[in-house]
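Milestone M4 deliverable, item 7.
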Amino acid sequence: MRKSVIFLIILLLIIVGAGGYLGYRIYMANKDRTDTTSTNANSEEEVVEEKQIQIFNGDERPVAVMIDNHKDAWAQSGLNDSYMVYEIIVEGSETRLMALFKGKDVGIIGPVRSSRHYFLDYALENDAIYGHIGWSPQAESDIDLLNVNNINGLIYDSGRERTEDAIYWRSSQRYAPHNCYTSTASLLRQAAELGYSTTSDKKSVLHYVTDEVDLGETAIVANSVSIPFSYLQNVKFEYDATTQRYTRYARGVLQTDANTGEALTTKNIIVEFAQNYTLNDSENKGRQGLNNVDTLDGYYITNGKAIKITCEKTDRAEQTVYKDEAGNEIDVNDGNTYVEICPLSAEVTFE
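Output delivered:
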């Protein structure tokens, strides 16, 4: 009897021990799986975070500023901090620029110049607060007609050197009209005062991707791009394979940013061909009109290559959709972009 009891006790201890060991193995296996899943999840989060688009993110509303491009306005301030720059022909065979900023505190932007009505289309499609000093008759009318959230330097120009509360100010280092400046903080502050929204959930005009865009073996070689807007204004971009960026020249002169002294560079270039014509407005200064609500021919240029594209805009406030020859919206490298809207007669060349 005693031997039987001892045997049962030993058997019970064996069963308890085996159960405990088995439970421990199951616990450790589950723990390993949990740790692995957690690690993988964290890795995926890191990948997503690492690949987030950098040039256009956050909900701060974009700010668009009209920039003087007369040679006496060079070097301009702030262009290297913009995410897009539109360049379009104006009167006198000159071009004017409109720079767009988002999520950056840019302390000096300019010289600021007056509005032209066709630039409003691109401020609207970017849902941007529009900064300018003065306007053409057509622009004045269209700003009201299209309800553009604008901040006009004719009202807010201090006329003197910068002060803490200045919206627009004048630099004594240059002469008028090439000496008016502003900042993103000033414009956003005044926008809030005027009751304009300073946030936006509108998607970017361009379809940015995080992986480098390869335009393919059949693409046009574009290490040098020449864009002649007129007999006066010829823009050239030169590609640097080391930095994978283009450096900007105008009228044979290297363009620089006055804030830093660095050369103006861009990751992407979009060329659009649009018919321009002379307006018969009340001032008879040869101001231009632009047929841009249409399907326009153009090029997308990046990483030393170019492809033909179409640029589809169905309404002045609607976003332009850029498509390849197969009809697909193009992928655009995560970086700043110059949009060169040039006359139909411009003979753009590549080398």
